[in-house]
Amino acid sequence: MDTLSADQIYERRWALTVLEEVLARLSDEYRAVGKAALFDRLKKLLTDEPDRPSQAEIADEFGMTENAVKQAFHRVVVNPNGTRAYVANAFSSDVSVIDTSTNTVVATVALENSSYGVAITPDGGHAYFTNPTGNSVSVIDTSSNTVVAIVAVGNVPYGIAISPDGSRAYVTNNQDDSVSVIDTSNNTVVATVTVRSAPYGVAITPDGTRVYVANTLSNNVSVIDTSTNTVVATVPVENGPRPLGNFIGALQQCSTPSPTPTPTVTPTPTPAPTATPTPTPTATPVSTPTPTATPSVSPSATPTPTPTATPRSHPTPRPHSTPRPRPTPPR
């Protein structure tokens, strides 16, 4: 029996539907440029099955560097109203703009260097792309699809996230163990925060008060207070944390955050629209029935809490015998 509540089942199905739509669009995009085989191999990396290929095997199969394969996972963002998708193309040093209503490329924006991380402002007006080989961030005006600024940051920038109010962009500088804070009103660096070894992914809380940075080589996460731009905590995690924030950020741009449903301890039965309301304080609340279940009411029963979802286990990360080397910038 599934112990999830109706709300939790709905949220799970919604999330799966979003993932299926994203994969379908990415598949169409890869096939349009003759890279269907690459997409099919990369998709296998999303699972934790024992027979999945390694990134090194995929690199050998397609004549790519292993670093180039790693980068293929983190280069797409959709604007807030869902009408455009922006894809960083590291191999051609440009950005593809996709019309999501027709799934066609409507513009290609040239960059000076190959790009990696991508984020878009909450108003959809500007897209920010990290350039690891240029130690910079390119800013694109989405109304004209032109580069309007290039911001110098630290050494080999990878991840990027923009605050909920759109006022700040946070960039992880992988090779000098720092985070650059960009003021998006004038596209200048206003602070540099030292974190731990080889920062990679980055995510911001919905209220904008905390920034979380995954440090790949030190196996921990730095927590930055955005009001002071200082590290207020360092959280140990498992080996080689990398894509923190890439998927989280994508979900936040696809939906409006809503409070997590909490179990109702003492629910009050709601009368049917045509029935005369009659208080039944001793009625046992009935959970959402399965198709074959028959709800029952016992006058003498005591209300019991709604079943709480049992957390599903996640695969244990594979341990690494030696620390991972720092990623090298894309060609």
The total of beta strands comes to 16
Can you give the mean pLDDT? 74
Strands of the biggest beta sheet: in what spatial order? 1-2-3-4
* Rg over CA atoms: 23 Å
Question: SS-based structural class?
Answer: alpha+beta
Largest sheet: 4 strands, antiparallel
Shape: globular
Count helical runs: 5
How far the N terminus sits from the C terminus, by CA atoms, comes to 51 Å
As a percent range, the share of strand residues is 25-35%
Task: Describe the structure in your own words.
- Helices cover 18% and strands 28% of the residues.
- A hairpin with a 5-residue loop joins strand 5 (118-120) and strand 6.
- The strands form four sheets. Strands 1-2-3-4 form a four-stranded antiparallel sheet. Strands 5-6-7-8 form a four-stranded antiparallel sheet, with no helix packed on it. It has a four-stranded antiparallel sheet with strand order 9-10-11-12, with no helix packed on it.
- The N and C termini lie far apart (51 Å).
- The protein contains five helices and 16 strands.
- Helix 1 runs antiparallel to helix 2 (36-43).
Question: Can you give me a brief rundown of this structure?
Answer:
With about 325 residues, this protein is an alpha+beta fold. It contains 5 helices and 16 strands.
Question: Helices, strands, pairings?
Answer:
Elements: H1 6-32, H2 36-43, H3 55-62, H4 66-71, E1 76-78, E2 84-89, E3 94-99, E4 104-110, E5 118-120, E6 126-131, E7 136-141, E8 146-152, E9 157-162, E10 168-173, E11 178-183, E12 188-194, E13 199-204, E14 210-215, E15 220-225, E16 230-236, H5 246-254
Antiparallel strand pairs: 1-2, 2-3, 3-4, 5-6, 6-7, 7-8, 9-10, 10-11, 11-12, 13-14, 14-15, 15-16
Helix pairs in contact: 1-2
